[in-house]
Amino acid sequence: MNIELEIKLAIHDSAIPLLKKHPLLQKTIKPSEQRKLISTYFDTPDKQLRKLGFALRIRQDDDTFVQTLKGRAELQAGITARKEWEWPLKDFALDFTVIPLPALQKLFTKSKFLIDFGPQFITDFMRTTWDVQLSDNDNTLIEIALDQGLISAGTRSAPIQEVEFELKNGNPEVLKAVANLFQVELGLISEDRSKAARGFALI
């Protein structure tokens, strides 16, 4: 389990070229990477898992599958913090046995819950990432990710067009400063809702 610390900002079409050409992204510690990510989120129609403060998904990245459990988001001094657990999977099939939380383990043994439990919505987007380290004297490492795609729930859909600033190592204050720099210079808009929250809102 780790604590995910991030700041999410919505971005307009006109700001995307400016983001990609930003001077800070020209000094990354490795070239930018682009991946197609498809995530399927699971719950019951009455959102029993979400009501407990959790989101469970399988993310496909090429031929790799990862199961992720995320806890309830908390806003801490402008940064979204949430508990996160991840497990590699051999294929597209949930593994309840690896989940370490007794309350959820008990829930996953109930036949009524399992009958109703299934896919609720899908996120399908391209992610472009840059790893930013401001100086050799500061060990703060920030992943900046541009996500562009769709959230789909049945016949309903919503666009994904956002920038995530995630602290991989170091000082949270530097994370806030970097996100604020891009927000001010590019006119980005705060987006406190996770993709999971937006997906459940579509249902």
Comma- or semicolon-separated keywords:
about 20% helix, eight-stranded antiparallel barrel, alpha+beta, about 200 residues, globular
Write up this protein.
By secondary structure, the protein is an alpha+beta fold. The chain has one domain (2-202): Hypothetical Protein Pfu-838710-001, CATH 2.40.320. 22% of the residues lie in helices and 45% in strands. It is built from six helices and ten strands. It has helices at residues 16-20, 48-51, 102-107, 111-116, 172-186, 195-202, and strands spanning 2-10, 33-43, 55-61, 64-70, 74-76, 79-89, 118-132, 141-153, 156-169, 189-190. An eight-stranded antiparallel beta barrel has the order 1-6-4-3-2-7-8-9. A hairpin with a 2-residue loop joins strand 3 (55-61) and strand 4 (64-70). It is globular.
Look at the helices and sheets and give the structural class.
Answer: alpha+beta
Per CATH, what is the topology? Hypothetical Protein Pfu-838710-001
Number of domains: 1
Strand residue percentage: over 45%
Shape: globular
Oligomeric composition of the shown chains? single chain
Q: Average pLDDT value?
A: 94
Main beta sheet: 8 strands, antiparallel, barrel
Give the CA-CA distance, first to last residue. 29 Å
Q: What are the segments in which pLDDT stays under 50 over at least 5 consecutive residues? A: none
Number of strands: 10
Can you give the helix content as a percent range? Answer: 10-25%
The CATH architecture comes to: Beta Barrel
Q: Tell me the number of helical segments per DSSP (H or I, 4 or more residues long).
A: 6
- Tell me the radius of gyration: 18 Å
- The CATH class, by name, is Mainly Beta
Strand order across the largest sheet: 1-6-4-3-2-7-8-9
